[in-house]
Amino acid sequence: MIHEAECEDLCDDRLVYEIELEDGPGPDLELYYDREWNFLFSATEISSNTLPEAVISAINAAYPNAFLDDHAERWEFPDGSLQYEVEVERSHGSDLDIVVDEQGRIQCEDS
Q: I need a labelling partner for 73 at 20 to 30 A (CA). Which of 20, 91, 98, 99 fits?
């Protein structure tokens, strides 16, 4: 069942459509489409404790004094590749959303 649909601004300032599906207990599934309704990726909420080591290492190297939020999103693309959106709180108190691929390369940042 579609729970919510909205236009979303990804951290690279790209407008996309986000469709949130809900089918009972467990994590919801979000589907992302470009402005022409081409499928981009699906997203599910995960615990930050389950992030790959390469992702955690990249964030710790770029933001050594930042704290990870308890939850992150795992983005799965049609080609099977994965990216992770993580929110961190920096030492001066501001939040930053970071997208990191499964090899630990930071793809984009958005405050």
A: 91
